[in-house]
TrEMBL record:
Name recorded for this polypeptide: Glutamate/tyrosine decarboxylase-like PLP-dependent enzyme
Biological source species: Marihabitans asiaticum
Molecular-function annotations in GO: aromatic-L-amino-acid decarboxylase activity; pyridoxal phosphate binding
Modified residues (N6-(pyridoxal phosphate)lysine): K237
Gene3D superfamilies with a match to the protein in the record: Aspartate Aminotransferase, domain 1 (3.90.1150.10), Type I PLP-dependent aspartate aminotransferase-like (Major domain) (3.40.640.10)
Keywords tagged on the record: Lyase, Pyridoxal phosphate
Annotated InterPro entries: GrpII_AminoAcid_Decarb (IPR050477), PyrdxlP-dep_de-COase (IPR002129), PyrdxlP-dep_Trfase (IPR015424), PyrdxlP-dep_Trfase_major (IPR015421), PyrdxlP-dep_Trfase_small (IPR015422)
Length: 477
């Protein structure tokens, strides 16, 4: 869609209007009703100074720290703050990355590079580990040994993880907390098992690392735990910074070296990178630095407690909603909800959307039914009574409709399809069957997604990946 003519200049006013039109189709980033993707502190001054910093540093380039020392100064300051929060020892070091996925890729890269003796490197992680670890393994040629979590607790099984470690294991991963269920893995025994085999242990605290340090009663999960070699924490999540910044901390500089990159053997400047990006805008880093100082650790502590209390309040209230339940008591500010089978989560998600909330459907996994994901932030807290009332009403509506029925023949057929190498025409046909087909191979996303989601849920994960990749492909043609 082109809404401005690129052959001639547009006025600032036209551009503002076009941007406003584009944004109007998006989910709200503020107000606390979008319960995934975005995080709102509710502190307008912090947002304002973050925007100012993005604007002021957007054109700076983190490619060369000697040209833009401001960026190194801010990065080092943020790493120092995180080190205090995460009980990092004096020797610990870190980098700022573009997000959680990049932090995890770098943790896997550094681990792989530290073991040139291993020909076919592998990593051990609980089955609930974030998919970004799958991506890291895929990109870096590190095979994943995913170990089922303990049934009912949804936390890593340390003994099973210990048994999964082999001579080829270069990294063990745990989550604090996991995205899908919001529970903290037992990091102590997992890290001990890794250390015993001389293997690194990364804690993915991308979503919890700026919340858990302020909560009581959380089992140890950071550098205070012996054997934890690196921790990732995203500033663009619960540090409430604009998008584009995560931190990856290592217990000592040696552990970090493997993700540094240098290339002098070409005719241009010597490329020296600490992260995946080479040229990188200083905007997100400066914004994160500004927001972290605008909020301050004392207020982060308050925000974390507020978001945690809101999460608990929702969890308690869900217990009184017929047909809906919490999958596992949460350790942090994330909730997974499921139904008792009298309705399905996909209809509830649609009903919530009609009421102005985004709750994120999570497909069934390992024999467990689909769930709804809610990440609660500080700005959601004042709206908890409305959230609970709307969840009750949405579940009531969904129960009235009953579970979405997927044609059993269609579900059986989906199980037979080999998702590898499906051509475009077949994918178009499958998307049409799934209710996503549009004119001339385009994609239309229906307003109500329950039927589509139920069908996707019935499809094996590999087919779901192929179909949704086809959707993405068609949306971006
Ligand atoms: C635990 C965890 N790890 C990694 C990620 C990936 O982070 P990003 O989306 O910033 O790449 C997320 C995102 O939600 C997460 O929750």
């Amino acid at each position: 869609m082109t809404i401005l003519d690129p052959s001639t200049r547009s006025t600032a006013q036209q551009i503002r209007e076009a941007l406003a039109t584009l944004r109007a189709a998006d989910l709200p980033t503020h107000g606390g009703r979008t319960l995934s993707y975005v995080y709102d502190s509710g502190i307008a001054e912090a947002d304002a100074i973050g925007r100012e910093a993005v604007a002021a540093f957007g054109a700076t380039n983190g490619l060369d720290p000697t040209a833009f020392p401001s960026l190194t100064a801010m990065e080092t300051d943020l790493v120092g703050i995180a080190r205090e929060l995460l009980h990092g020892p004096e020797a610990s070091v870190g980098v700022a990355t573009s997000g959680g996925t990049e932090s995890l890729i770098l943790a896997v890269l550094a681990a792989r590079e530290s073991r040139p003796d291993v020909e076919a490197p592998r990593l051990v992680a609980p089955s609930t580990v974030h998919a970004a670890i799958h991506k890291a393994g895929h990109l870096l040629g590190v095979a994943l040994d995913l170990v089922p979590v303990v049934p009912g607790s949804y936390r890593a099984d340390p003994a099973a993880m210990a048994s999964a470690i082999t001579d080829d294991t270069v990294l063990v991963v745990a989550s604090a907390p996991s995205y899908a269920h919001g529970v903290v893995d037992p990091v102590e025994p997992v890290a001990a098992a890794a250390a015993q085999r001389g293997v690194r242990c990364h804690v993915d605290a991308c979503i919890g690392g700026w919340v858990l340090p302020f909560l009581d009663g959380v089992s140890p999960w950071d550098f205070a735990v012996p054997g934890v070699t690196s921790v990732s924490v995203d500033l663009h999540k619960y540090a409430y910074a604009p998008k584009g910044v995560s931190l990856l901390l290592h217990r000592d500089p040696d552990l970090r070296r493997g993700h540094f990159f240098a290339a002098a053997d070409w005719p241009g400047y010597t490329v020296l990178n600490t992260t995946l990006q080479s040229t990188k805008s200083g905007g997100p880093l400066a914004a994160a630095w500004a927001v972290v100082h605008a909020i301050g650790l004392d207020r982060y502590a308050e925000l974390a407690v507020v978001a945690r209390a809101a999460t608990q309040e929702v969890a308690d209230a869900v217990a009184a909603i017929d047909g809906l339940e919490v999958v596992v008591p949460p350790d942090s500010t994330l909730l997974a909800l499921r139904t008792d089978g009298s309705c399905d989560v996909f209809t509830i998600a649609d009903e919530m959307k009609d009421r102005g909330w985004l709750v994120q459907p999570q497909m069934g996994f390992a024999g467990e039914a689909a769930t709804l994901h809610l990440s609660l932030c500080a700005a959601t807290a004042p709206g908890v009574p409305d959230l609970v009332a709307d969840l009750a009403a949405a579940t009531g509506q969904a129960r009235g409709r009953g579970p979405v029925q997927v044609d059993p023949q269609l579900a059986a057929a989906a199980g037979q399809i080999d998702p590898s190498g499906l051509d475009d025409a077949t994918l178009d046909g499958l998307l049409a069957i799934a209710g996503l087909g549009g004119e001339g191979g385009a994609v239309t996303l229906p307003d109500r997604m329950a039927e589509v989601n139920a069908l996707l849920d019935a499809a094996p994960p590999r087919l779901r990946e192929a179909l949704l990749t086809a959707v993405l492909d068609r949306l971006t043609r």
